[in-house]
Amino acid sequence: MLGGYCGKILWVDLTSRKWRTEDVTLEMARKWIGGSGWAAAIVPKMVQASTDPLGPENILGFFTGPLTGTIVPSSGRHCVAAKSPLTGIWGEASVGGSWGKALKHAGYDALILTGQASEPVYLWINEDTVEIRPAGSLWGLDTYEVEEAIRKRTHPRAEVCAIGPAGERMARIAGLFTDGQEGRAAARCGLGAVAGSKKVKAIAVYGKKAPALADKEGLLKSIKAVLPTIKERTKGQTNFGTAGLVLPCQQLGDFPVKNWTQGSWEEGAQKISGVQLAEKYLTGRFHCASCPIGCGRRIAITEGPYSGVSGGGPEYETLGLFGGSCMIDDLAAICYANELCNRYGIDTIEAGNLVAFSMEAYEKGIISKEDTGGREIKWGDPDTLIGLIKEMGEGRGFGAILAEGFPALAQRYGDAVQEMGITVKGLSFPAHEPRAYNSIAVGYATANRGACHLEAFSHTFERNLAMPDLGIDQPLDRFSSEGKGVMVAKAQNLMMVFDSIAACKFLLFGGINPTILSEWLTMATGIVWNAEELVQCGERIFNKKRLYNVECGITRNDDTLPERILRQPRGSGGAATNLPPLEAMLDEYYAFRGWDANGIPTEAKLRELELL
Amino acid sequence: MLGGYCGKILWVDLTSRKWRTEDVTLEMARKWIGGSGWAAAIVPKMVQASTDPLGPENILGFFTGPLTGTIVPSSGRHCVAAKSPLTGIWGEASVGGSWGKALKHAGYDALILTGQASEPVYLWINEDTVEIRPAGSLWGLDTYEVEEAIRKRTHPRAEVCAIGPAGERMARIAGLFTDGQEGRAAARCGLGAVAGSKKVKAIAVYGKKAPALADKEGLLKSIKAVLPTIKERTKGQTNFGTAGLVLPCQQLGDFPVKNWTQGSWEEGAQKISGVQLAEKYLTGRFHCASCPIGCGRRIAITEGPYSGVSGGGPEYETLGLFGGSCMIDDLAAICYANELCNRYGIDTIEAGNLVAFSMEAYEKGIISKEDTGGREIKWGDPDTLIGLIKEMGEGRGFGAILAEGFPALAQRYGDAVQEMGITVKGLSFPAHEPRAYNSIAVGYATANRGACHLEAFSHTFERNLAMPDLGIDQPLDRFSSEGKGVMVAKAQNLMMVFDSIAACKFLLFGGINPTILSEWLTMATGIVWNAEELVQCGERIFNKKRLYNVECGITRNDDTLPERILRQPRGSGGAATNLPPLEAMLDEYYAFRGWDANGIPTEAKLRELELL
After folding, report:
1. How confident is the model at residue B115 (pLDDT cuts 50, 70, 90)?
2. CB count, 10 Å around CB of A525?
3. How far is CA B76 from CA A214, B182, B291, in A?
4. Residue A120 clears pLDDT 70, i.e. is over it
5. A241-422 architecture in CATH?
6. Class level of CATH domain A438-561+581-608
7. pTM for this one?
8. CATH code of the domain occupying B237-422
9. Residues of chain A with C-beta less than 8 angstroms from the C-beta of B29
10. Which CATH topology does A8-206 take?
11. What is the nearest CA distance from B331 to chain A, expressed in angstroms?
């Protein structure tokens, strides 16, 4: 081995059309790991709190982790980050697929776009060749089409990250999509709009520089030892994808129903479950790079009104929000709506919440036919869902208004959004219920990007997982509140590690813990890690993002949940009566975090984390 | 641990009086280790081959290694580097003492001076406080005096690196001196003149930031395991210092006698041996930072004409060149001459060779009383030695001419210097004989800074040491030539590692090998190393310096030795008849190095070492 893992960032300035590479510092590698950690180190340094997210001063960063593109299982992820145009605060999205691996194999750990192109462009990164090419003729293509078109112009095995028409128009619910019709999405926080603002239609990457491993044999041996357990314990994900969660989550009251107003939807869930998906439409599995699980679904619908739908199948989140929250039990319709979102380049979580919101607001007369351009909006109606998604994707009618996201809707409809727009800090709820797991309440309230189940992923420690490395010796009771503030903070710190190295959190189900991660990281990079310092890095990273949000004006007032979640028991289902006692848990959370009562990190904590 | 070893360089620009810090890249840490390796990475990038070494475009770098200032035994060294004003090529000097440790404990791995001050200054570096202070009133003080004066102005335990009057006047044989009257010297290559050209009288450092160790317990355990062996096998150095080498080296014909013309000097050597020094003048030992050996001598002369001499005692090199080469057997006189050199800030190796040259040239009538300003120059005469050193130090008379070094003398005396000036590439021979060890011939001819016994330290593998890590399974016959080219190249690669990490090569005597070094390095820094990649780094570092020399015009023609060494057997002593077959060994050396027949590294080799 010569050199080994060194960490290289490719900076591309779209305004000047110049690029350069940066070798990262040893301090950067140690203090910030990679992936989401590098995003936390770089975005706040480059983008002021006052910056217009859609202006040339925002940056758009793609950060792989030190394990991305290696032989480590489920390591094929990367983080995309910018100031969010949807929420105006910390913006980040994580995505699997093969694009991150390809960037790493092209020789770069990260790609950061600055400035703004004057005309549509796409980037072609082939190891030492970095080109900014015109994309005028690609503008308007959907994400499936653009991959095909760009592969013809570059390399047949180039990996393409692209925006669809929604991103081009800077719709604030637009994401960045990879892997063509597999529909892997860095969907959240409207980062597709940032790409659109920079006039970047796509980024194609290819390379053959597999990362040097400091101790390949040791790594292989360690992986082999745990691989059977990972495979065994993730069989559900392998067989049914995340769609397999529909039935258990519904049963537990963890499933959104009728825009977060009801507690159960048994019959509907049966119709859109992972089993149904597998039996009716499944044609194969999709594995992200290096992943033994393969939770991605490949589907094809060959008959009925949605015949012709083909490609990536809907995830649990999509099923929860298009299905339960909109009360739509037509699985084929959901598959079609999912494909539309992928093609247009739209976040299905935002879309599902926005449509459910519209259904409720329309029913209550807050939105009228005048607003919708004559469209009738009905609960459980596939045509409503599909129609509104087409409008969002194409920037037409009422959908164009929805596609600006809840913060913009709040300007227009005021209190109605306050009541029915189910977000934290402007980011819509994913399909997990804070009333079903008390820790989710704290997790959503404090997640740096807004309502996010993956920044803490804490409900997993209220269900069946323990994590002795973090002092979580056994799973906690989901309806208890004591200790939940502490547990969520610890879980967030650990999840920052996953997002930074960057690996899939499903490894948790296979028994992977910080100790194993630190061993893999050491053997892969040749930088010595241990579990404790890895988790402390996670804490540093979480706090750094919080500091950015504090600069953007975030305080305790924003660390809250919609009234509906805090005050309205649902009365049915697996969590019929529970309401999360957020403020008490938040007090505990702040105290453990070393934040003051207003949610601001104290100087002592910042000093401890070397953030001062 | 938070962060651990991260690598920080302090840049001080003397012209603008501004300073900044740089966090080194992970690539820098991996490819270039530290110390001499960082020098190799940085000096050629900053200083063009055409740059005037005494102009503002030269830089002066002080590079500790990742082990400097740690608990690793004998790790208290650092490297000083610049373009050499003496030789006009790669300039480097290594020094022990406590200054490197102090710089590290002030929070910096390296200090690099750029530009030129307009008035005399000294630097005061106290952790985050970096000051460029006026040194007008310190100008003219000798190196012992200036330490005392600066400690009064800064901190009583500040470590001071200073030039004496010779460096102030930019004498090209001036060095940089640390540890006050202990007389630790980065003496070679005239780097004191570079400090003088920048008007930097001294650099005082102090700090309490002991470097974080990634695995302190493991490191302590590993050190404890080998410490008894180190102590046992370096007893000679502990008891008699490097002066203890006088007798064995004389016996082996490894000792310079009468300007490299004779093979033995038995009676004289007896009078100036380490035993004599210990019995007559020794008052104590001096240990460089973290060193269990303590080869430094503390002496005091309390009677006779040199009564009052006190402080660091002469090293083997000084005894060889002031004693054997000048035929001076008055140990007290040598101690005094040594003290004078330390105070004036002069390299004793250059001074000894220059005086011996003068003695021979005067005897042969090439230099006359006219040249010497009336001074009679006589073999074996202490007054000649002392008188000329005073002139060198004070810039007076014939000594002022000598103090410009052999390359300048060659301009003046032409062929005489060609014949009697015993240098490679303008740097004088240290007190080891290429005719006594064939490997020394290759080592001197190819050392990047010119005649240097420490860039290869290869005679140790022709005497009593093996090094299986390098494929040197047993010590080689010193008079054989086959395999010597290969052995020297390997030894140089290993010595680059010692100079980069930065530790004392005397550890070799204690059985320390690349395997142990790589373990220590891993446990100290938290960057994983193994022996093979460590030695390959050494190879990269050696080649990088060679590339710089090639830019400066060095080719095979310069990889040679004086005719005297190549063609004149000495006829007596332990190596009476041997002449090193340099060209054949050089062919082998170039072939093994992957250099072409003219001594230029091939593209394939540079690619292999990631130098292209």
Report:
1. very high
2. 29
3. 29, 15, 7
4. yes
5. Orthogonal Bundle (1.10)
6. mainly alpha
7. 0.94
8. 1.10.569.10
9. 26
10. Aldehyde Ferredoxin Oxidoreductase;  A, domain 1 (3.60.9)
11. 50
